Amino acid sequence: MCDVCGCGDPRLAPRVSIDVNASLLADNDAEAAHLREHFVAHGITALNVMGSPGSGKTALLEATARALAGSARLAAVSGDLATSLDAERLERAGIPCTTITTGSACHLDASMIHHALHGDARAAVERCAFFFIENVGNLVCPAIYDLGQRARVVVLSVTEGVDKPLKYPVMFRRADLVVLTKIDLLPHLPGVSTAALRDNIAITRPGLPVLELSATTGQGVDAWVDWLRSQSQLGIRG
Amino acid sequence: MCDVCGCGDPRLAPRVSIDVNASLLADNDAEAAHLREHFVAHGITALNVMGSPGSGKTALLEATARALAGSARLAAVSGDLATSLDAERLERAGIPCTTITTGSACHLDASMIHHALHGDARAAVERCAFFFIENVGNLVCPAIYDLGQRARVVVLSVTEGVDKPLKYPVMFRRADLVVLTKIDLLPHLPGVSTAALRDNIAITRPGLPVLELSATTGQGVDAWVDWLRSQSQLGIRG
Predict the structure, then answer these.
(1) How confident is the model at residue B93 (pLDDT cuts 50, 70, 90)?
(2) With bands split at pLDDT 50, 70 and 90, how would you rate the model's confidence at B23?
(3) CB contact, 8 Å: A84 with chain B?
(4) Considering only alpha carbons, which residue of chain B is nearest residue A158?
(5) Which of A5, A107, A163 lies at the smallest CB-CB distance from B85?
(6) B54 near A CB under 8 A
(7) pLDDT tens digits along B136-178
């Protein structure tokens, strides 16, 4: 365990006790288990949505709101170092959303979600069918923090290039779904194909489901909504 | 100080002693000061190149190699969780490059650079004019680690949207230059303009220099090379 980031650089390990980080993640896992029990008991399908800055997480949720308008209650929390810009976008799209301001922290953890659920996010989450946790934009650190989610969704823009699943394997190995976004830009990205992206995802994590989507054109949104329905224990409820 | 990431979530602070993290960053700063002395003494201009996954860091350095071929010796280290793909690209472009494999760690720190300079990277860096440290793709964590660089360069792709300087302020506040990349894609990004990006950068960090560049078309590379020359103590040497 790395003493800087709770992640894993062995070179730094001797500087502090390994128990500090082990305990941190154990604490997080215990709190995540508590959250999961709550979500399951209340029929809430919680999704941990992760990806690089600008990968299209918020745009995906806006498109989801348009697709599910009137057929399912949605709620969200949005993690950001600063501003509530994403939460404002989601509110405008019809998703009640609470900002979790992390300061300079690079990920959400279970205690932040727990805190939000005992605060401003409570009313909306209690009556929702789908609870979207939009993580801090970061393809590294959020991967190792269980947030009690039903599934981890990695959002990867085709503009990021085809090598990211190979270069950031931790995130992809723990994912339940990859959504390739901004596919409307593919004609302008000569070195990029979704076939190559799918190949590299399969190398990193064989069998991991992949969807292709453009929030701008709406292409692929139906398949994403079908996947969401497949994750819901109770089907989509109003 | 956050006990998870060395960064800054006050909610987690009570869990471990603040001295652990303060000491970590103090150790890093001391090692970075040592590196800086070495770079200055040897007339090496070291640049810490940071940005999101897929922001175009490697493509910027490839374009730099093309622009400076024959007129300046370059060297690099490339930090990645896994693979040596970026280092292989830089080697093909003519920049001797050593990979620093971080495992699952989300940033480079001074000890990793120091270790590389006493290892495989030594020969190339000792005789270079410009030493590029291509950090792990991450717009959050690398910001707080001094690597002994002459300057911090933030690479931000226009495909990431205009709000990133507001949402990831720590990185921009510590930068010496922002390079806006992939500007050839602007005609296909209706909601994005470099004017809006410049406005948001100016809000976060008034006066921070900004360049606009496309590694694909070569637009803006000359201004980037001029900026590099301005950073060099000794001018560009062969």
Answers:
(1) very high
(2) confident
(3) no
(4) B54
(5) A163
(6) yes
(7) 999 999 999 999 999 999 999 999 999 999 999 999 999 999 9
The Cα angle at residue A47 between residues A85 and B191, in degrees rounded to 5 = 35
CATH assignment of the domain containing A61: 3.40.50.300
- The answer to whether position B6 is within a domain reads no
Query: Which residues in chain B have their CB less than 8 angstroms from residue A137's CB?
Result: 52, 139-140, 164, 167-168
pLDDT band at B104 (very low <50, low <70, confident <90, very high): confident
CA distance B229 to chain A (A): 29
B184 to chain A: closest CA residue: A188
Please give the residue that has the higher pLDDT: either A118 or B238.
Answer: A118
Tell me the shortest Cα–Cα distance from B236 to chain A, in angstroms: 32
Q: What percent of chain B has pLDDT over 70?
A: 89
Residues forming beta bridges with residue B133, ordered by sequence position: B48, B77
Beta bridge partners of A97: A76
Structural domain contains residue A6: no
Q: Tell me the nearest-neighbour CA distance from A159 into chain B, angstroms.
A: 7
**Which positions in chain A touch B11 (Cβ < 8 Å)?**
111-112, 115
Query: Is A146 a member of any domain?
Result: yes
Partner-chain contact A2 B167, CB within 8 Å: no
Low-confidence ranges of chain A (pLDDT < 70): 1-21, 233-238
Token pair 């190699």: residue: B65
pLDDT-derived band of residue B22, with 50, 70 and 90 as boundaries? confident
Chain A residues close to B109, C-beta within 8 Å: 4, 12
Residue A45's beta-bridge partner residues?
Answer: A130
Assess if residue B86 is contained within a domain.
yes
Provide the domain limits for residue A95.
25-231
Instruction: State ipTM.
Output: 0.89
Q: Which of B9, B53, B103 lies at the smallest CB-CB distance from A52?
A: B53
Single pTM value for the model: 0.91
Cβ contact A82:A137 at 8 Å: no
Give CA–CA dist B28/B23, Å, rounded: 8
What is the pLDDT at residue A88? 98
How many domains in chain A?
A: 1
Residue-level pLDDT at B67: 98
